[in-house]
Amino acid sequence: MTPEQAERFDRFRRYPPKVAAAIAQAILQALPQGEAPPTLLEIGAGTGTMALPLLRLGCRYLGLDQDPEMLRRFREKAAGLSGWELLLADARAIPLPGESLDGVLLVRFWHLVEEWEAVLREALRVLRPGGVLLEGFERIASPEEEALFRVWESALGWEGIGVERGLHGRRLQEVGEALRALGLAPEVREVVAWREERPLRELLELLEHRVFHFAQEVPEAAHRRAMAAVRAWAEARFGGLEAPLPAEKRFFLRISRKGAP
User: Fold this and answer.
1) Band of pLDDT at residue 260, cut at 50, 70 and 90
2) What is the pTM of this model?
3) What is the C-alpha separation between 131 and 144, in angstroms, rounded?
């Protein structure tokens, strides 16, 4: 990523403070409890959205990502905090010994990798017996956002370009099936629900600059033409770029414990 893309990603993935605190608390409560603080590895650490509230609660944190710019942004944000270490590495080959961690965390991650089976094997390899695999994901209800995305998809469809949205949900199901086949028992918990309003201008910016993963493989010329169609439709539909687009959001944590403590 470029510095500009990492900054947009950071703004887009940020949670309201109370939401971030609730998620961090749920993650820590799911980890094995002992005399020493638990050690947690986050795969796909990004710019530290999950890490910072965890560090403020005293978690020992390792963050793995293969994007140097994301980790540079992370270091800037976490400069005043202690108890963290970053690994610039591929999640298919985690540079840590086996059975060395209390928890492995992946948030909105599975759609980013084709070889998810290899990542899952590595995540389970580095977990101690009794350690937990934690998968975080959201469910978002926003008819306004959905209508905007469908206009963009339709504009691309006229050029014969298909777009795959909803990949993360399908991958979550595949990973869940794999975990059960390995004898684990994934448990899903709803952590927090909240409401956000995002101005139309911001959503258009995020789509235009391909912050959404499903937009990243669309050819540039076709993407520009689709964005022109979306902007014209959206401004007519919502009455201006500052129109608020509401979204109802819920964050879930899927917890799978490895073996017996």
Assistant:
1) low
2) 0.92
3) 40
